[in-house]
Amino acid sequence: MGHLELFEAERGWLKGLAYRMLGSISDAEDIVQEAWIRWAQCDLAEVRSPRGYLTSIVTRLCIDHARLARVRRETYVGTWLPEPVAEGTPLPSQQAELADSLSMAFLLLLERLTPAERTAYLLREVFGCGYGELAESLEKNETACRQLVSRARERIAKAQPRHQVAAEEQQRLLGAFIGAIAGADYSGLMEVLAQDVVLYADHGGKALSVRRNIYTADRVARLFLWLQKRSRLAPPELRPVMINGALGLILFEAGQPSTAIHFEYRDDGRIGAIYQVRNPDKLSHLAEA
After folding, report:
1. In the chain, what are the domains?
2. pTM score, two decimals?
3. Distance CA 275, CA 260 (A)
4. pLDDT 10s digits, 56-94
5. Per-residue confidence (pLDDT) for residue 94, from 0 to 100
């Protein structure tokens, strides 16, 4: 096979890695495009493993980009959240073993790691690469890579418990959430929301939204009921869809996506967090969802 065929065979893998590294579909696409330019110039006779070679390119590009992105986010207006990805986005995300690594909570945890720790953890714990591959991609020895993975694994394990919630339970919880809002049922909302639920809202200064995160079930419930009352004259279209590996909602107004909502479902039958993205720059790719 030639350069193009070999590259296309790995495009999904590369984009999935870049998205998890950067939390941005558009940035991931730019990284993959830059990787293609470099790949097209290489001598295939000297490439032992196309996936390994391309992973190394994307890894190094992402590490450089992540450092710059961290500086830019210091001036971001409001809460920054990753760009939401919906079912059908060309990422290796539909497999059950990878879906959890797309959750907003997990991607935000990755943001707390250094770019090198983030890369090492993703390659080893999510994509199952060997330490030899990590060493090549990170240009470090295997001992250093093992230390990076160990530190990242420890920090992630301490920061956030994992919740494995079946699809049927997600459907039940989302249905109860939507029904309670539609019926202006405060008690119903309190039944479905965890007491310590948090609403994270990303508007980027470009859309009407709450200006800070909202804490506790009472405040989150009252906010959604107020929003429902306010939108009765022109209610948005709600589309349940898989968002970042879990059942979520996309709200459409005038035929265009205006809000993407990702839910953190807990195994105690409650919603533990709500991630609401309203920054229009992060929603245009959801128009066909």
Report:
1. 3-159 (1.20.140.160), 167-286 (3.10.450.50)
2. 0.90
3. 8
4. 999 999 999 988 887 788 888 989 999 999 876 555 444
5. 42
